[in-house]
Amino acid sequence: MHNIQLAAGQIIQQVLVDGRNLNQVLDESLSRKAVWTPAQRAALQDLSYGTLRFYGQLDALLSALLHKPLSDRRIYYVLLVALYQLQYSKAARHAVVDHAVRSAQMLNPKISGLVNAILRNFLRSQADLLARAAQHETGRYSHPPWWITELQTQYGERSEQILEAGNQRPPMTLRINKRRVSTADYFSLLARHEISARFIEPDALQLERPVSVDKLPGFFDGLVSVQDAGAQYAALLLDVHDGIRVLDACAAPGGKTAHILELAAVEMVAVDKDEKRLQRVAENLQRLGLTAQLVGGNAAEPIEWWDGKPFQRILADVPCSASGVVRRHPDIKWLRRPADIDDFAKQQLNILQALWRLLARDGKLLYATCSIFQQENERVVAAFLAQQPDARRQAVTLPDGITGQLLPNDQHDGFFYALLQKIA
After folding, report:
1. What are the start-end ranges of the H helices in 357-387?
2. Which of 87, 109, 144, 196 is deepest in the core (most CB within 10 A)?
3. What's the predicted TM-score (pTM) here?
4. Candidates 370, 380, 398, 406; catalytic one
5. Strand 311-317, strand 359-369: pairing
């Protein structure tokens, strides 16, 4: 366990200090230690994600336990990992403490005794320390202060539910390839493999417990894909039908591209400026038995790649803060800065304006983000409509009468959709 604690501490440090992407750092760490078992790899992922998910609370706890800052910051990150284990994991408490002390001895033997004292003090005064941490919003909600304030301003009383949802483990949801099998038949197939699931909107299956994709029957034969239920609305709202030309801008990793092709026989063009990520689109399409024209290019600069033929449908799944999917990517909330939101909004409006010129008369463009900040959603759409006289916003059908903004809950992440039609 101590090797996993050490590796997790190093990962957390690289994310918080160096501003690196959690998935990338985790992948690098796993590749350096090929001898780790699948269980150890899963444990490292859990400790890394969990510690970042609750970093605000864990940092508040550690601050209350320390009389002065640690001289060796490497120990600080190991302590964060150990506190996460003591508070949220099922690992034996004495084992967590013992291994954390061993980790400290490997890093700095002079501080190992302090590590033992800090963790045992936490166990003795856990309830009181948790109450003290909750006195401050960052410790209570495990989100940055500016993020909390933004949500409180925009959503009022609902902000607390949004913040709590952002700290939950994300559900594992399946999208069924309707070209191969019905949702009902695949549900029965899961049952035969003793995998429990339930039906959720929009005609998706949510697993009771996540499993690796190699355990999903027919996954490698293209029967099913893993995709959040909120993301599955994109292809449905785009209103595609056979024979039309469709553009998926900012397409990687290809989940929405594939879903559109599963729904209709369209001429699909998938664009992304990241050539490596575009390869993932190709791999997903190959697994599902689907085809599309893949183009490397910047959605904001279509003159570089567009062939001049208009599209009847465009999916503008634009880059965003990803504030609606922080439970899947907990590093995002600690790496984002307030200025980033305004920068994204400018980029989003530029992309929307650029892609609009590619849309055929009477065609439809679906503007989509995985953000919950209004600056990237309603305000961008309002700014676009004010500048574009030939654009009309169309109603979209989402659960519970929602007009565009899906907020994260136990069934889906946070997404925003606005359907725009070019009037003839």
Report:
1. 378-387
2. 144
3. 0.94
4. 370
5. parallel
